[in-house]
Structure prediction request, 201 residues.
Amino acid sequence: MAIETPEAILSFWLEDVTAHPEKLGAQMKRWYSGGKPLDAEITQRFGATVDALASGLAQTWASQAPRQRLAAIIALDQFSRSIHRNSPNAFASDPLALRIAKDAIAKGDDKTLHPIERIFLFMPFEHAEDMAAQREAIRLFEALQADATDHTREAFKSALDYAHRHADVIAKFGRFPHRNDALGRASTREERVWVKQRGGF
Prediction:
């Protein structure tokens, strides 16, 4: 498989939603409920690119510009979950995605990227099993509300709600219990009850 470009990743993932934010609701269903067909498409088209990014290409993209950094983050943070679902590798690139996201914030990418694009710039903070990162996710998603429009307000509120819910889990357990099986971690009784009741994210 060929290595895809940053723009190919962004075009595939975002389609035309930044130009047509009225499509955000439908796009969110694709992102979060795409299921096996979307996983298979991502694996077939972007598997080699994700591997290359995890093996060093990400540093090159991260040194370039906001959209290149965003593409690397989407590939490492989102595509990895589709390609390696229910396996440890689904989360293996999370630390790298978080490092790039922190660097992007330091460079001001959260001020220059489209508000819809920022959702994915912020995701690595939300996915981190670290309370400081969780607090930063909440701060970033709270700031995003100021840029909401009639088309994006509901989705941005939902994103902030999910940030709070992720932070609550880390505050309670120090980790995401629904990852335990994939990562080979033993669950406590309390974690097993939580997973049975909530199922994860």
User: Anything to note?
Assistant: The radius of gyration is 16 Å.
